Structures are given as structure tokens and as C-alpha cells.
């Protein structure tokens, strides 16, 4: 779909929010004091075999009906669930045990909040609501340039100058690390430099894209002004320069230095893979220079403008293309979002984000609030049913990911 069509459709979506009842609410990021995860001990583990087959679709996991019967995790379980494994690029592996301090038991239950939910198949049906972002004016600018490709076939999102958030099952099946994860790589889209300085100037423009829109609008709306401002320059440019502007970007692959996975994901702890802990953080061997997206604690659906979420990833049926989509949340539990955005394999691990106001200056800011775990099949009353799920970033998970990024909890007091 062309960029103009993307802008038109998203602008219509924005108007429905600006003039609808959602504007009566104060959609702001709610700052919360985070629990502290303190490292206790780190043990060396045997070298993993790296023999598991990548599975882009999970089966036999706890679905929507199953979630309604689950109790909320108890503080006595948090140490086991939030301790974590780290595997390094040389194949060595460690287990770090943590103590959780200052956490409060969430009074909410895991019971979902039905909203007339109907089962729908995840594979694209009817009108394909996805948008391929091919224009480099969008593709190489924030927020789309935060999406990355993982060499095992998944997607991810940049959350620091050296860290990528993705789904745990993209690198680990619950028992062993998947094939290829020992030499894991992350692909970042870049424009090929031909010595004319275009890419460097583009990078500086990306860094200057700090001010956000003053009111909620479609995610790509801030890029519309950028597109218009460049139109005059494009009309005056020579045919040679126009060709350079339209050249296709390519992946620059960076090795992964280490991978962190919560112990709650391991089958030995949960008995089966626990979708609630289907997230992992990859530390890059070399820092990138792109603008990354900050984490945010996932609000309840009623705290989302229009109940809408956004994410971009590299769907397998559109090779080499970044695919963007947005849709509303259909259901939720304390740890999971359920939605039916059109998505194909390869988009798993994408960072789900939204835009809310910063309490300090009331400007809109994007934050990652969940990880797209993907399409999953579950047994419901003897029948196989499917749905889409995203792992919400709760205060405990935020504190853990923050610890992975900074190496200590001193910089993780508030989320």
C-alpha cells in the first residue's frame, strides 16, 4: 500500500479519536514506583546444545479460557519466575538468581474481560489491513526504524543503544536454545552510503525528531509534515539525486553478545511454556546509532486511546518489507493482550507500542508496552482454536528488563 493511502487511512483513524469520546479522558503515562530486582547469585550452567527447531507458532499453551482459571502469581513464586538465564556468544551460559523487593501483589485476577469476543483466524482474511512501509522517508525514520529482524526468523524492537526486545520462543523452545541462536544476529535497515553524506544527514534529522504531536493522532501522522517539507527539494533535485532518494535500504547485520531469558519461560519451572514470560532481551556486540523506543508499563485497555495498539515487523509472506499494522485490543488478562491484527509468521517478537501523554509536559510519547508473541493454537473443549497474544510489560517485567539493560537496579526506580 502506498504511503499516501497509509496516511489517509491513519488520519481517518486519528479523527475518530480526536472528535470521539476518547478525548474526554486524560490519556497519560502513569508513573509507578517499580519493585527492585536484586541479584543474589550467578551460577555457571552446562553449554546448551542449540538443537531446538525454531517454532514461530506455539501450541498447547494456556489460552483465553485457561487464563480465567489461573491464580495470580504469588510473591513466593517471583524469585523462580524472574531469575534468568544468560547465554553468551561463545556458548557459555549462566543462571542469575534474584530477590524481589518492594513489589505489591496485583489485586487483579487473571480472568479476562470478555467483550463479545469471537474467534477469528490469524492468517490474513478478507481485506488485508497491513501496510508495507517501503518509502525510505518512513522506513528509515522513527518509529519504524526501531523495528529489527532476528536471524532466527522473528522480529524485534530497539529498546536501548545496545539492546533488542523480542519473544523468548524466537531463541529458546522452553528446553533448549534454537538452532542458529549460538551465532544470533540482528538486522537493522540502513541506506547504503555512496560517499555523498546523505545517510549521515538523514541520521541527524532522525535525532532531531524529538517533538511529538500535541494531540493523539495516527502513528505515521508526524511523518506527514516531514514528507511535505522535503517535496520542494525533491522537485528541484536532478534525476540522479531522485534515484538516490528512492534506493532500497539493506540490512546491516550485527552479532548478539548475550541473550537474557526469564526463568519463568523454561519448561522445568512452569511445566510447560508459559506465554506470560515469552520475552527475551538481546545485547548487541556493537551499539547502533538509531533512535530507540523506551519501555512503558502496560496500561489497562481503557487507558489506551481507542483501545488501539501498533506494531511493525518483518512478516514472512512479504520478504524484505517492513509491515506495519494497528488494531484494537479484543480481550486482556493481567499478563496478556488478545487481539486480531493481521499478521504472518516473522512478525513474532515485534514491540507493541502506543502513544500517551507525558505527565511532565503533556506531550505525546511512544513507549513499548508489550511483545507480540504471535499466533497460538490451544485446545478448547477438544477443539483446536487460534488467537493472537501479546505479553504485557508489567511492573515486575519492566524492572527485570531494566536490570538487563543497566546491569543494576539503581536506574530502574520508576517506570
UniProtKB/TrEMBL annotation:
Protein name: Inactive serine protease 35
Ranges of Basic residues composition bias in the record: 191-207
Protein family: Belongs to the peptidase S1 family. Snake venom subfamily.
Keywords assigned: Glycoprotein, Secreted, Serine protease homolog, Signal
Annotated segments matching region Disordered: 191-251
Cellular localisation: Secreted
GO terms for cellular component: extracellular region
Annotated InterPro entries: Glutamyl_endopeptidase, Peptidase_S1_PA, Peptidase_S1_PA_chymotrypsin, Trypsin_dom, TRYPSIN_HIS
GO MF, one annotated term: serine-type endopeptidase activity
Keyword set includes Secreted: yes
Main subcellular location of this protein, as a coarse class: secreted
Secretion signal span: 1-20
GO biological process: proteolysis
Domain of life: Eukaryota
Ranges of residues in domain Peptidase S1: 140-230
Amino acid at each position: 500500500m502506498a504511503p499516501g493511502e497509509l496516511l489517509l487511512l491513519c488520519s481517518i483513524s486519528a479523527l475518530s479519536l480526536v472528535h470521539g469520546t476518547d478525548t474526554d479522558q486524560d490519556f497519560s503515562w502513569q508513573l509507578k514506583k517499580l519493585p527492585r530486582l536484586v541479584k543474589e547469585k550467578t551460577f555457571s550452567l552446562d553449554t546448551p546444545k542449540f538443537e531446538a527447531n525454531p517454532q514461530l507458532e506455539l501450541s498447547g499453551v494456556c489460552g483465553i479460557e485457561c487464563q480465567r482459571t489461573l491464580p495470580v502469581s504469588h510473591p513466593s513464586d517471583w524469585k523462580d519466575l524472574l531469575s534468568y538465564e544468560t547465554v553468551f556468544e561463545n556458548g557459555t551460559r549462566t543462571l542469575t538468581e534474584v530477590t524481589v523487593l518492594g513489589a505489591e501483589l496485583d489485586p487483579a485476577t487473571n480472568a479476562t474481560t470478555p467483550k463479545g469476543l469471537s474467534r477469528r483466524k490469524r492468517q490474513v482474511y478478507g481485506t488485508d489491513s497491513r501496510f508495507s512501509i517501503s518509502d525510505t522517508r518512513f522506513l528509515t525514520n522513527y518509529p519504524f526504524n526501531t523495528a529489527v529482524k532476528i536471524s532466527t526468523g522473528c522480529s524485534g524492537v530497539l529498546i536501548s543503544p545496545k539492546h533488542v526486545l523480542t519473544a523468548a520462543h524466537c531463541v529458546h523452545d522452553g528446553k533448549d536454545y534454537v538452532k542458529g541462536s549460538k551465532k544470533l544476529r540482528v538486522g537493522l535497515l540502513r541506506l547504503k552510503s555512496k560517499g555523498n553524506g546523505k545517510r549521515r544527514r538523514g541520521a541527524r534529522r532522525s535525532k532531531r525528531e524529538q517533538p511529538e504531536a500535541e494531540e493523539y493522532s495516527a502513528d505515521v501522522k508526524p511523518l506527514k509534515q516531514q514528507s511535505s517539507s522535503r517535496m520542494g527539494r525533491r522537485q528541484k533535485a536532478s534525476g540522479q539525486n531522485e534515484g538516490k532518494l528512492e534506493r532500497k535500504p539493506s540490512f546491516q547485520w550485527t552479532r548478539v553478545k548475550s541473550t537474557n531469558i526469564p526463568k519463568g519461560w523454561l519448561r522445568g519451572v512452569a511445566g510447560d511454556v508459559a506465554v506470560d514470560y515469552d520475552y527475551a532481551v538481546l545485547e548487541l556486540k556493537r551499539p547502533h546509532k538509531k533512535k530507540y523506543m523506551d519501555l512503558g508499563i502496560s496500561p489497562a485497555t481503557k487507558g489506551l486511546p481507542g483501545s488501539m495498539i501498533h506494531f511493525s515487523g518483518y512478516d514472512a509472506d512479504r520478504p524484505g518489507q517492513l509491515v506495519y499494522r494497528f488494531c484494537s485490543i479484543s480481550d486482556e488478562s493481567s499478563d496478556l493482550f488478545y487481539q486480531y491484527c493481521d499478521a504472518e509468521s516473522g512478525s513474532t517478537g515485534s514491540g507493541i507500542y502506543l502513544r500517551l501523554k507525558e505527565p511532565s509536559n503533556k506531550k505525546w510519547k511512544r513507549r513499548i508496552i508489550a511483545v507480540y508473541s504471535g499466533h497460538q493454537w490451544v485446545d478448547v473443549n477438544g477443539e483446536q482454536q487460534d488467537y493472537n497474544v501479546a505479553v504485557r510489560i508489567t511492573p515486575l517485567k519492566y524492572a527485570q528488563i531494566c536490570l538487563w539493560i543497566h546491569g543494576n537496579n539503581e536506574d530502574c526506580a520508576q517506570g
